[in-house]
């Protein structure tokens, strides 16, 4: 649990960014590229990236990011400078200007939780050529993986913003309350689902909330409490599903394409409700395979799952039923 403590003036100084931060998106995107199941909404993007002719740029970017921003309790804050609010160029300039003392400190923290290869030593020493090479790799990765899909990202963020803007009528506290279940506003403390236990005291600095398309499940904060307080949170993709349904989107990213034949069959086979064993029998598939698909459908907001004794019962959500009706899958 991350507990963010607000004091006098912090609510007035809290802001919600209206666009993603390019460096944070790069950090999260390499995780989506390499994890076993990145969720339904990422599948069109994954297919496009895997077909990209810029394979060398993507491999180099993933190779660097997997070392500098590993999945785990820590990665260096210099990779995600606040200048990212002003765009990619400003962020890369800030990375190249990172003080040597800070680089040595942050690479020391990284090495304590994850062994670092020899090629990171010039970066840790703040050598200008190494920092220049790093930003070149990041810029090429961004051009291959993030930039071509800007419209997709912008639509999801705008949809999230529109839905949260109604909550803004109640001020910042309304926005914070609307972040449930990612966060729980218990004035004067914002409780955030987190991978480990920590406290962050704003001390009058306010909080910058940044939406992210590629962030998944839980928000992420800067590690150093002395830096400008920042919390990056995943946009609510359920609202993106609803917008696509209401507009009748039939592009490659349309809902039927996102589901695929097998998951469409699983969603349809649920009917009025079914256990994993019942679904396996209806589909002629193994229970383990069905379980993997129901997990993805549940994370996408299309199924709910409740335990009943030794079994689990799956039911379609209203959104899942609307999807089936919209695409005549049942």
UniProtKB/TrEMBL annotation:
What top-level branch of life does the organism fall under?
A: Bacteria
Q: SMART domains in the record, alphabetically?
A: HTH_ARSR
What SUPFAM superfamilies does the annotation carry? Winged helix' DNA-binding domain
Residues of the HTH arsR-type domain: 253-325
**Pfam families the record matches:** HTH_20
Record keyword Repressor present: no
Keywords recorded for this protein, A-Z: DNA-binding, Transcription, Transcription regulation
Q: Which GO terms describe its molecular function?
A: DNA binding; DNA-binding transcription factor activity
Q: Supply the PANTHER family for this chain.
A: ARSENICAL RESISTANCE OPERON REPRESSOR ARSR-RELATED, HTH-TYPE TRANSCRIPTIONAL REGULATOR KMTR
Q: What is this protein called?
A: HTH arsR-type domain-containing protein
